[in-house]
Amino acid sequence: MISGCVDSRGSRGGRGAKHRPWSFGGWSSMVCWVAGDEVYGADPKLRKALEDRGVGYVLAVACSHQVRTGVGKIRTDQLAVSVPRKAWQRLSAGNGSKGLRFYDWAWISIEPGHGEAQGQRWLLVRRNNATGELAYYRCWSPAPVPLRELVHVAGRRWTVEESFQASKTLTGLDQHQVRRWDSWHRWTILAMLAYAFLAILTATERAETTTHQA
């Protein structure tokens, strides 16, 4: 799954970052970042399209995915081995069902390939604190951003995916029986509006309950 997000904190993707409106399907919006799983991380055409539009991305990639460094191409898992112990930072990727989701994170600058746009490139590595399992992300931004920003975008992808799963259960997001774009588009918008209504109603009720208890 791929998801786009506007930085809710108003940073527009970090100090000095310049993002242009991205038009998709006739709709234009200010998308600062795009996050996606390994299917999208392995697609060079998608990465180039985002870079050409000035849209930053944090895309998951496989351990066998190769990135370009100053000494040539290397697998992501092999590059991660070179990360010194002091380079890891424990940061939260957002709220989960049991509170904040903390992982150890490290990032490594990588080189652009032939014909790729200018900008900042990193391999982002996530380490599970309990199991030591590693996950890898290929990242790009038109201007320098802090590590915390990339972690935030990576975490937002999980939030979006959880919302899609919930909307399938609660509002029938995946229950459309048509194959035409217009009908599917209308169904999807109505299902997401219904889910947004339920989310706002739930948040309001929880806030009122907390106020009364206090």
Fold topology:
Blueprint: E1 2-5, E2 22-24, E3 27-29, E4 33-36, H1 38-41, H2 44-52, E5 56-61, E6 66-69, E7 72-75, H3 76-81, E8 89-96, E9 99-109, E10 120-127, E11 134-141, H4 147-171, H5 181-213
Parallel strand pairs: 4-5
Antiparallel strand pairs: 1-4, 2-3, 5-11, 6-7, 8-9, 9-10, 10-11
Helix pairs in contact: 4-5
Largest sheet: 7 strands, mixed
Share of helix, binned:
25-40%
Category from helices, strands and their pairing: alpha+beta
How would you sum up the global shape? globular
Order of helices and strands: EEEEHHEEEHEEEEHH
Rounded average pLDDT: 82
Distance between the ends: 40 Å
Quaternary state of this entry equals single chain
Strand order of the largest sheet: 1-4-5-11-10-9-8
Tally of contiguous helical segments = 5
How many runs of DSSP E, i.e. beta strands? Answer: 11
Domain module tally: 2
Pfam family, one: DDE_Tnp_1
InterPro entries: IS701-like (IPR039365), RNaseH-like_sf (IPR012337), Transposase_11 (IPR002559)
Organism: Kribbella qitaiheensis
GO molecular function: DNA binding; transposase activity
Could you characterize the architecture of this molecule?
With 214 residues, the protein is an alpha+beta fold. The chain folds into 2 domains: 155 residues, no CATH class; 42 residues. The protein is 36% helix and 29% strand. The strands form 3 sheets. Strands 1-4-5-11-10-9-8 form a 7-stranded mixed β-sheet, with helices on both faces. A two-stranded antiparallel sheet has the order 2-3. A two-stranded antiparallel sheet has the order 6-7. Helix 4 packs across helix 5. It is globular and about 55 Å long. The chain starts with a strand and ends with a helix. About 10% of the residues have low confidence.
